[in-house]
Design the sequence.
């Protein structure tokens, strides 16, 4: 179940309250889930990885490590839509506590939605005898956030109502872009990206868990 | 180009461009097909020709994405694109313009920027085509701006088409009704829908459009839904089925049909064949009266509509303070509350001496656009503000107001006409308000005549016969109701401000509610009120008073002079409990009661702070969760504001906390929570907002020095901007900088010179320490 429930909100709030029933309904009614998924062949070059038939290139060592043994990759874009952002804008002005509950719940919803998309991809590939990697997103480790711009373009973000601000923040806020590698010997587990990451001198291991 | 196009004619439009370019040239995904106008002109020309051969009367230029944000050489691309289409042999050529690709609103572009983007495109087209075709728009604000740019910079007809999802709305929430009324009021000559769905689902949207207007309707559906086959995107509906579906669309009253994604010349040929003998059904749409926002249309259908009056500084100290300190969120929250309480339309008045009314109007409208669906009523006495608001507003607004003086009518009505808004006409002139109902009716007639001279539709005229205090002049209520009935016969709409009626009397709501009831029964179309009035059931005494019965004034006063005290005694919970349990309204009432007996310092020290401390302690022990902490903070805030209402601000001006979400970061819920929680401990919080530039932070620190700075960053990428901000500030001022945000760690915070705060509660603790 991607949608939220009164029980989930109860856990976030820390107690049972009558309004949570209506609130979970309001949140679910505001969801406008949309996704766009595409698959491409990978071309490994010296400094970068290219996606065949696109202008997308992946820079950095971490994604190279992540896509080790892969021949293809999926890119996908998922969003909860603008309506949930509006609800959040509204609640931040009149009920900050509910705004917080919404924000936390929405994070969990988009996560479940991405899980669902990932699972579909995995199922499809497993049936062909392939393996898949976990999700990897632009901005993670040393894969530049700018990568998002090309990904959104190729996936038709505009038509889904997903835009990128000048500072590379996705709107609606609750949107995710991600990469999943595919190959006969793709490695699923997460790895020590810090060991290879170009930022490992400056970053004090603050970000990627 | 042949003869001038008649958009009402039956027209076969062309099919997809992008799909064919993909098929024939297979460029990289994401490559702009418009560039082929220059790189491979024969490819584009042939596609146009193939569509003409298939039977298209009209082809769209290959210029969909040719704008300054997407293509550097967009002007050249446009020129070449138009040339190719003109050379295709098509009877008509449409100048195809898509969305800019930039987001409208706070973090994207504003009206002027958007306007200029489309103005440049339109000027580049030099009116060489038969009409302008804005298509695949999803954001109505962007589309409306584009229409205005087209109307002001070209003499061509303008056709506008949006993409609706299956739920009948665009991704930005616009429905067909709001689209049609907004687009037509901005000056569009025809409306339509394209893309997103196949022709089967498109039928519903097409039908809806034909019901809403008698203007021409243009429809271009996709060839069904896309799916991936062998790594390629293909569509699931063949040309046979597609053309049958389009026949239904034409039958429903649509006069121009073609195809969007997934279609090719074969589809167009089939459509032409299949629909050639179909005569579109006669439209049955009746003349209606409606106003709308970008997502909600309010039909003036005989049921009285409520216009919320609370966004107005007159007589409201807090509202004035908020406007002066540029806290526009306050006005926006007044909108949210009124929507919740049952308003259908929001009146927006931000007129206050000493502020930039135009700027304030823009800011408040921008916020309301995000947080409320309701159409707006623009309330100003300055015609420049009215014009600015009408230009920027997305929807069909009401202008409040004109009066019957020639000066007012001549100044305001041209604006009303230009943006096709509705307008309120007050029945008063240079000589004042006529005493008699007949006199007010005469002025109404003058206003109506003048409106019609300017070409304003009668459906858009709303007459206010004015409410005067019954206590000051016995019989006022009767005259107003009388005048209302007379004006109703003139076949225009009517409005009344209600609350004036009770001026000078106790328990005013009761009288207001009675008057509202009388006006409603007399057929009033709009009431301007505080929507909470709807909850009040009027008493017989109030009706007697308004009907000017003998002795009614005395009776009323006797019955109601101390009614407020009765209500007040009902509250029994104490303030501390109200705060701990996070009950906002209750906390406000309790604090209001207490402030009659205690000083503000006493209330804060005896009730509010102990309550907050208890909440904080519970939170630390894990008994309370963050939302409970926030709810208590918000309840305390309402308590404060009730206290401050009586005795002025209670925060300590010497404990200043400057707060900002760093540059590049627009996630500010965390910062807002910190603001809410810390403000309750008596610190003076200066909130700089989100995505705050380094200079702005520096300036604020300078202005408030000595102070504490608080910075929040939520993204890995903006943590760097936090570091930079701290460096710049610390180079000039030796002040503590508190930092927080999901991606921060204590170690990293310290490394960049900040004091790490794990959450809002922790921030309070650190602030207390610093200010000790
Ligand atoms: S924690 Fe730092 S070093 Fe490790 S992967 Fe992330 S950015 Fe690179």
Sequence:
């Amino acid at each position: 179940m991607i949608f939220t429930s009164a029980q989930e909100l109860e856990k976030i709030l820390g107690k049972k309250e009558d309004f949570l029933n209506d609130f979970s309904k309001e949140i679910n009614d505001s969801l406008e889930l949309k996704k766009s998924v595409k698959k491409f062949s990978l071309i490994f070059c010296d400094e970068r990885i290219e996606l065949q038939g696109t202008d997308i290139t992946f820079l950095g060592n971490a994604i190279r490590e992540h896509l080790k043994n892969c021949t293809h990759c999926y890119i996908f874009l998922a969003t909860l839509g603008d309506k949930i952002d509006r609800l959040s804008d509204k609640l931040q002005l009149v009920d900050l506590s509910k705004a917080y509950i919404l924000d936390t719940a929405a994070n969990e919803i988009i996560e479940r939605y991405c899980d669902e998309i990932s699972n579909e991809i995995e199922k499809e590939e497993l049936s062909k005898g392939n393996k898949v990697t976990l999700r990897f997103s632009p901005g993670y480790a040393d894969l530049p956030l700018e990568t998002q711009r090309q990904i959104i373009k190729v996936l038709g973000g505009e038509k889904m109502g997903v835009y990128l601000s000048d500072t590379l923040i996705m709107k609606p806020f609750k949107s995710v872009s991600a990469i999943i590698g595919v190959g006969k010997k793709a490695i699923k587990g997460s790895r020590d990206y810090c060991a290879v990451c170009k930022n490992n001198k400056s970053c004090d291991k603050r970000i990627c868990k | 180009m042949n003869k001038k196009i008649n958009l009402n004619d039956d027209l076969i439009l062309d099919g997809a461009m992008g799909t064919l370019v993909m098929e024939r040239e297979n460029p990289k995904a994401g490559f702009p097909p418009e560039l082929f106008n220059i790189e491979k002109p024969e490819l584009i020309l042939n596609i146009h020709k193939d569509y003409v051969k298939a039977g298209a009367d009209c082809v769209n230029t290959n210029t969909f994405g040719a704008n300054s944000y997407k293509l550097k050489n967009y002007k050249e691309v446009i020129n070449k694109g138009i040339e190719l289409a003109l050379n295709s042999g098509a009877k008509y050529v449409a100048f195809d313009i898509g969305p800019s690709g930039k987001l409208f609103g706070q973090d994207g572009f504003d009206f002027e920027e958007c306007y200029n983007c489309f103005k440049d495109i339109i000027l580049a087209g030099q009116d060489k085509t038969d009409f302008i075709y804005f298509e695949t728009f999803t954001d109505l604000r962007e589309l409306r701006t584009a229409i205005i740019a087209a109307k002001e910079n070209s003499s061509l007809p303008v056709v506008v088409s949006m993409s609706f999802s299956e739920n009948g709305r665009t991704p930005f929430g616009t429905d067909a009704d709001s689209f049609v009324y907004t687009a037509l009021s901005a000056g569009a000559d025809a409306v339509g829908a394209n893309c997103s769905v196949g022709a089967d689902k498109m039928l519903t949207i097409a039908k809806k459009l034909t019901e809403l207007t008698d203007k021409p309707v243009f429809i271009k559906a996709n060839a069904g839904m896309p799916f991936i086959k062998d790594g390629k995107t293909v569509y699931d509906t063949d040309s046979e089925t597609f053309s049958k579906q389009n026949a239904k669309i034409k039958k429903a009253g649509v006069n121009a049909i073609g195809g969007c994604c997934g279609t090719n010349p074969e589809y167009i040929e089939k459509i032409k064949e299949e629909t050639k003998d179909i005569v579109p059904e006669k439209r049955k749409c009746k003349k209606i009266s409606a106003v709308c926002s970008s997502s909600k249309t309010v039909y003036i259908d005989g049921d009285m509509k409520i216009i919320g009056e609370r966004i107005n500084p007159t007589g409201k100290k807090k509202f004035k303070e908020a406007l002066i300190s540029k806290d526009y969120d306050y006005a926006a929250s007044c909108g949210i509350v009124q929507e919740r309480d049952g308003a259908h339309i929001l009146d927006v008045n931000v007129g206050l001496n000493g502020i930039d009314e135009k700027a304030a109007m823009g800011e408040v409208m921008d916020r309301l656009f995000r947080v409320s669906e309701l159409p707006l009523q623009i309330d100003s006495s300055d015609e420049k503000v009215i014009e600015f608001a009408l230009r920027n507003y997305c929807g069909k607004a009401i202008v409040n107001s004109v009066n019957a003086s020639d000066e007012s009518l001549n100044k305001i009505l041209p604006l009303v006409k230009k943006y096709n808004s509705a307008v309120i006409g007050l029945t008063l002139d240079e000589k004042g308000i006529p005493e008699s109902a007949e006199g007010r009716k005469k002025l109404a007639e003058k206003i109506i005549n003048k409106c019609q001279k300017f070409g304003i539709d009668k459906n858009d005229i709303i007459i206010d016969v004015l409410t005067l205090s019954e206590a000051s002049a016995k019989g006022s209520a009767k005259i107003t109701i009388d005048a209302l009935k007379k004006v109703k016969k003139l076949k225009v709409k009517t409005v009344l401000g209600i609350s004036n009626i009770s001026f000078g009397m106790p328990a005013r709501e009761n009288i207001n509610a009675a008057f509202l009831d009388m006006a409603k029964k007399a057929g009033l179309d709009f009431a301007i009120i505080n929507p909470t009035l709807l909850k009040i059931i009027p008493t017989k005494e109030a009706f007697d008073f308004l009907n000017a019965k003998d002795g009614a004034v005395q009776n009323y006063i006797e019955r109601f002079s101390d009614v407020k005290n009765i209500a007040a005694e009902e509250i029994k919970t104490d303030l501390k409990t109200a705060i701990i349990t996070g009950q906002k309204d209750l906390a406000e009432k309790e604090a209001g009661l207490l402030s009659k007996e205690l000083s503000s310092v006493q209330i804060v020290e005896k009730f509010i702070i102990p309550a907050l401390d208890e909440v904080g302690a519970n939170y630390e022990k894990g008994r309370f969760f963050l939302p409970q902490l926030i709810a208590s903070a918000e309840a305390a805030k309402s308590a404060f504001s009730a206290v401050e209402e009586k005795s002025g601000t209670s925060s300590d001006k010497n404990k200043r906390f400057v707060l900002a979400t760093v540059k590049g970061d627009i996630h500010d819920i965390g910062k807002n929570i910190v603001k809410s929680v810390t403000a309750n401990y008596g610190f003076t919080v200066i909130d700089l907002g989100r995505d705050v530039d380094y200079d702005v932070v520096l300036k604020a620190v300078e202005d408030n020095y000595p102070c504490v700075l608080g910075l929040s960053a939520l993204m890995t990428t903006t943590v760097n901007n936090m570091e930079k901000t701290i460096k710049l500030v610390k180079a000039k001022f030796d002040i503590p900088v508190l930092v927080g945000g999901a991606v921060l760690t204590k170690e990293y915070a310290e490394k960049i010179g900040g004091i790490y705060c794990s959450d809002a509660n922790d921030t309070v603790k650190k602030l207390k320490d610093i200010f000790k």
Notes: Residues A 62, 141-142, 193-194, 197, 199-200, 203, 205, 207-208 surround iron/sulfur cluster (CB under 6 Å). Chain B is about 45% helix and 15% strand. The first strand of chain B starts at residue 11 and ends at 12. The two ends of chain B are 80 Å apart (CA to CA).
